[in-house]
Amino acid sequence: MIAETKVALEKHSRRARILIADDHHLILAELVTLLRDHVDIVGTVGDGRSLVEAAVRLQPDVVITDISMPGMNGIDSLRSLKASGVVTKVIFLTMYNDSELVSEALRGGASGFVLKHAAGEELMTAIDEALQGRVYVSPEVASGREHT
Hints:
Layout: H1 2-11, E1 17-21, H2 25-35, E2 40-45, H3 48-58, E3 62-65, H4 74-83, E4 89-94, H5 99-107, E5 112-115, H6 119-131, E6 136-137, H7 139-142
Parallel strand pairs: 1-2, 1-3, 3-4, 4-5, 5-6
């Protein structure tokens, strides 16, 4: 499935422009490594306020963000982006398999919800789905299963 998604991402007329937000520097570095051959990483930030500022300035196609961050959490950042008129897809990449958080994120306009432990397998699929105007939720979240 990853190979099919890579092909789908490459079919877009230009490489997707991605902004990544996470307060853990190792996660940021791993995400850049995972994605850089397939998308353009336009920036990385470590908190919600910086996410909003960077998204307004950089106008990425997709924002990948954690929910739990200092300053402003990811869901509040999503609300702020929508209120400021920034047109971008937002995918939450989080360790929280919580149906209430998923519902809140999707009601707020999120385009995806991916669990961190599945990021390598699912994140590129989520990006492709978002770019096509669809919503992606990790199957584990959608089925209500918990990671063990």
